Amino acid sequence: MFPHRLTDTRAYDVALAIVEGFNRHYRLFSETNRAAKARFEAADWHGQQHAQRERIEFYDKRVDECVERLQGEFDVASLSDDTWQQTKLHYIGLLTNHQQPELAETFFNSVTTKILHHSYFRNDFIFVRPAVSTEYIENDEPASLPTYRAYYPTRDTMRDTLLRIVDNFQLKREFEDLGRDIDQVMAALQRHTGTVRLRANFQIQVLSSLFYRNKGAYLIGRIVNGFNETPLVLPILHNDHGQLVIDSALFSQDDLLMLFSFARAYFMVDMAVPSAYVQFLRSLMPRKPRSEIYSALGLQKQGKNAFYRDFLYHLRHSSDKFGIAPGIKGMVMLVFDLPSFPYVFKVIKDFYPPQKDTTREQIKGKYLLVKSHDRVGRMADTLEYTSVAFPRSRVSDELVAELMHFAPSQIEEDGDALIIKHLYIERRMIPLNIYLQDANREQIEHAVIEYGNAIKDLVAANIFPGDMLWKNFGVTRHGKVVFYDYDEIEYLTDCNFRRVPEARNEEEELSGEVWYHVGPKDIFPETFGPFLLGNPSVREVFMKHHGDLLDPAFWQVHKDRIKAGHVHDVFPYEANRRFLHQRQLSHQQQPAAKSLTPA
């Protein structure tokens, strides 16, 4: 029962200490995001990558600092249940005028769940449900920017308005030809919308911060006309001469979904009120869960919290059972799912076959590498949880037996709950090997081309996937092929790509065993073929489009480029959407100029 009076002064002090811990975290988080603009202007791509990796670690460090402070100053292990409940009430009061209350609630959960037993993970003690509204929050400081700016062009002033929208971001680097780029934006908009009547409320609303990721800055807004809203995304890049260019113009919800895909790295965005950004983006992507939008904005812990609330809600409104996921079973991961829920759950096994020379800590390290790396649209994001309680009645006996056999150290039974001490959760996709079994010729061709493109994107991002079997890749709703099995990934620059040596005699040539020396990081691309290309239809397409993946020279060239400092361009849209591509195509199609010299 909740306390009727706030009687323990320590409760307020503990609550204040946790708020101070969160405020320190968000200040450092915001400073890193704010500096992304300067790094983009300076073309400091390595600095941008370093900042993104470092930012991933911010949250856990601040949580650990806060826990240490609470244990040192308040002896929190000895606090009574009543005091903890009073602490939560004080905390809610401290968030009344806070600009990031939902993030602060999540921080409270992160801190207290490191101190309290999982039996306390109830709304009496932590924020199972949000307590403070995030509606209509604005930053009222005099020098602050609104969440978005609104512009009111007419048909005649559209070009000037678009120029002003870009100029207002005050990027400290010149555009190659901003007027030309705006003309292409207007032409692309005309192609997308056709000729439409401008209604009385016609306006362009643009979020006040650019979205920085990889080597790009993305201007994101919406065009409002009557009852219709059209997304507006303008990617801004550097050209080969260090000048800025608008690279494309994107206007559809599917474009936004690809830009904010779960297989892409998190953005850096300077935002005082993140919930307002999420609300704006959700209006453009109503199918996108709030949890994934928070994660895409670099607030992955809030994304985890929102996801878990969605998960609990789904459990309350479903009755099917968790079971072993279909497909080929993994050697190091036990994978299960809930058929009605579009995610899979992965638990690291306690033991592995002899050919898997690894440990639990090494596997967790691989997943952390992916979390902190640029996933270039080809590696699924993972949500990592500890001490997750599943209703025992909803878990099939077959799955319980598998968990008890392969991962007994990770399982705890507590009354009607089955506690899994550590697991990962990923978006469910169709495993590529299963997709290919049921695909027609056209689908096979698309999937195999996408598979090769996925590997090449990973290579360009300094990732060697390790196990390249079809079963370790999945097909998304948009037909993209994404990698999701990370226990063997390595940095490309750490690998040695070699040709298979020629046999010195007939005995070696006919040997069924590897007769030459193989180092721990040696890779022989020529040997990929027998494992991947047994299907003649698959082999034909693969060799036509991606035969170079079987050549060590392909891998070595990319390794050398990365070691020389090259950072790969990543485009979350097709090449034919690029203005540069369209200009080149237009130039090629122009008829040759007639000679003015008399014959």
TrEMBL record:
Catalysed reaction per UniProt?
Answer: L-seryl-[isocitrate dehydrogenase] + ATP = O-phospho-L-seryl-[isocitrate dehydrogenase] + ADP + H(+)
Q: Where in the cell is it found?
A: Cytoplasm
InterPro entries associated with the record: AceK_kinase (IPR046855), AceK_regulatory (IPR046854), Isocitrate_DH_AceK (IPR010452)
Q: Where is the Isocitrate dehydrogenase kinase/phosphatase (AceK) regulatory domain?
A: 15-319
Q: Where is the Isocitrate dehydrogenase kinase/phosphatase (AceK) kinase domain?
A: 320-574
| UniProt KW Cytoplasm keyword | yes
| This enzyme's EC code(s) | 2.7.11.5, 3.1.3.-
Q: Which residues form the active site?
A: 381
- UniProt GO molecular function: [isocitrate dehydrogenase (NADP+)] kinase activity; hydrolase activity
Top-level taxon in the UniProt lineage = Bacteria
Enumerate the residues binding ATP: 325-331, 346
Task: Tell me which UniProt keywords the record has, alphabetically.
Answer: ATP-binding, Cytoplasm, Glyoxylate bypass, Hydrolase, Kinase, Nucleotide-binding, Protein phosphatase, Serine/threonine-protein kinase, Transferase, Tricarboxylic acid cycle
HAMAP family in UniProt: AceK
Stated family: Belongs to the AceK family.
The record describes the protein's role as: Bifunctional enzyme which can phosphorylate or dephosphorylate isocitrate dehydrogenase (IDH) on a specific serine residue. This is a regulatory mechanism which enables bacteria to bypass the Krebs cycle via the glyoxylate shunt in response to the source of carbon. When bacteria are grown on glucose, IDH is fully active and unphosphorylated, but when grown on acetate or ethanol, the activity of IDH declines drastically concomitant with its phosphorylation.
Q: What is this protein called?
A: Isocitrate dehydrogenase kinase/phosphatase
For this protein's source organism, the top of the classification is: Bacteria, Pseudomonadati, Pseudomonadota, Betaproteobacteria, Burkholderiales
**Gene name?**
aceK
